[in-house]
Amino acid sequence: MAEDKTPRDAGPVADPSDTSRPEGSVQAEGAHVSGAPWRNFYGRFSGKTLKDSQRRYLAEDLADLSPGAVGWDENPDRTPLDLEALFGGRETWLEVGFGGGEHLVHQASSNPDVGIIGAEPFINGVAMLLGKIRKAGCDNIAVHPGDARDLMDVIPPQSIAKAFLLYPDPWPKTRHHRRRFVTQEHLEPLARCLKPGAIFRVATDIPDYVRQTLEEVPKAGFEWLASEAADWREPWEDWISTRYEQKGLREGRTPTYLTFRRLG
Ligand SMILES: C[S@@+](CC[C@H](N)C(=O)[O-])C[C@H]1O[C@@H](n2cnc3c(N)ncnc32)[C@H](O)[C@@H]1O
């Protein structure tokens, strides 16, 4: 579960490649000298001490997996990424908050004709993903080790054919619901990145998260594709269970699988 931190008390960002909010350079309330908007992030950037092997993966592999210039310091004009060059013209998918990366690597290995960009600010998760990519040997993954909002700024409009939001942080307290990913602050940029007809999958085991998803996602220009209960009770045919799903099942929660289509 994510812990509550504001940008001012979050301290130095543990992820060395996240240059979106360097320390001590806030220009004015709501803005950064690089021009970056002030974005609250309440999750964690790091956890347990990384293993030596994980440090090595980060040092050796992460830069080569970059989707391009995402951070505000390296790309203050927010020039869109060149996805054609990134994946050699392959269709592009997006996974937000990939955690340990099991689903991302599974989809990339099963779909070699697709390129997938993953965004995850938790550096321990990024390191786990890099280990899995080494094992699987897939060449169709790009990694943004940071906030999906910074990535979505520079994804060209209408360029993503499928997006995944799997077990997003639940933020159970009512006063924290506005921190959830299924708010217009996140959904509007996501909708802008998706092609008309693109698929957006959301998995969660928190009933109130289902409620908010079904209320908010259609407002951002999506239709829910469900005609019978099996459509949200049964996992997708190409599904692989994630770490958070496994944890939820152990704790007695019931997964819900929601599929939306981008209108337009
Ligand atoms: C509950 S975990 C689920 C991880 C994984 N999808 C799974 O099912 O095991 C939610 C993840 O979303 C990530 N996350 C939170 N806010 C994010 C953001 N703004 N952009 C990208 N990822 C984010 C967190 O760091 C965390 O790893």
- In terms of DSSP E residues, the strand content is 15-25%
* SS content category: alpha/beta
CATH class categorisation = Alpha Beta
Q: Rounded to an integer, what's the Rg over CA atoms?
A: 18 Å
CATH topology: Rossmann fold
Q: For this structure, what is the CATH homologous superfamily? A: Vaccinia Virus protein VP39
- The count of domains is 1
Q: What is the count of DSSP helices, taking H or I runs of 4+ residues?
A: 9
Helical coverage, percent range: 25-40%
In this entry the ligands are:
S-adenosylmethionine
Sketch the major β-sheet: 7 strands, mixed
Give the topology string: H per helix, E per strand: EEHHEHEHEHEHEHEHHE
The CATH level-2 architecture is identified as 3-Layer(aba) Sandwich
Poorly predicted tracts of residues? 1-28
Q: Main sheet: which strands, in order across?
A: 5-4-3-6-7-9-8
CA-CA gap between termini: 35 Å
What is the residue-mean pLDDT, rounded to a whole number?
Answer: 89
Bulk shape: globular
**Number of E-type strands:** 9
Topology (elements, then pairings):
Elements: E1 26-28, E2 31-32, H1 52-61, H2 83-87, E3 91-96, H3 102-110, E4 114-119, H4 123-136, E5 141-144, H5 148-154, E6 160-166, H6 184-193, E7 194-204, H7 207-219, E8 222-224, H8 230-233, H9 243-250, E9 256-262
Parallel strand pairs: 3-4, 3-6, 4-5, 6-7
Antiparallel strand pairs: 1-2, 7-9, 8-9
Helix pairs in contact: 1-4, 3-4, 5-6
Tell me what the structure shows.
- The protein has 264 residues and is of the alpha/beta class.
- It has a single domain, classed as Vaccinia Virus protein VP39 (Rossmann fold), CATH 3.40.50.150.
- It is built from nine helices and nine strands.
- The protein has helices at 52-61, 83-87, 102-110, 123-136, 148-154, 184-193, 207-219, 230-233, 243-250, and strands at 26-28, 31-32, 91-96, 114-119, 141-144, 160-166, 194-204, 222-224, 256-262.
- It has a seven-stranded mixed β-sheet, with helices on both faces.
- α3 packs parallel to α4.
- Mean pLDDT is 89; it is low at 1-28.
- The structure holds S-adenosylmethionine (SAM).
- S-adenosylmethionine is lined by residues 43, 96-99, 119-122, 125, 147-149, 166-169, 242-245.
